[in-house]
Amino acid sequence: MRDVKQYTLPAASPIIEIKALQNGNEAETCARMMAGSEPWITLRRDYNASLKLLADPSREVYLALVGGRIAGFLILTLHGAFAGYIQSVCVAPDWRGQGIGSQLIAFAEERIFHEMPNVFICVSSFNHGAQKLYERLGYEVVGELKNYVVWGHSEILLRKTIAPLAEFKR
Q1: Model confidence, pTM
Q2: What domains can be seen in the chain, in order of their start residue?
Q3: Residue 3 has pLDDT above 60, yes or no
Q4: Burial class, 109, CB count within 10 angstroms (exposed 0-12 / middle 13-18 / buried 19+)
């Protein structure tokens, strides 16, 4: 896991600290946050499924802390077909719109681009706010997975790259 990082957000935004998930209490807080907010409500990811994902040792989980309290988190997958996959970005509803999601993604990109040239993320077709954020951050649509998680909604696969695989050097 990586060291703790601090990010200063635009003028009126809070200073956040990003650190690796360290214990079960933190995982439980994150699972409640995820299961109790969109888009995960629509995607039917309940508390137990969220907690299982957060505890998966094949994932890296990082917390965004404001004043020592968890304001959001992200889950990364760095192995497999889509190595460099941001599996989830979750910001507590009270903290949304304050730049925390952008800073979590910036942290993820720094982490991933150190080891591989592509960052992948999926966004639900109904999650228009996240789609705008990812587009603003330079992500491009590379595909659509219709009815992938739930009927009636697509997952849109996005990618941001710094080089083709064959030319990337660590």
Answers
A1: 0.90
A2: 5-167 (3.40.630.30)
A3: no
A4: middle
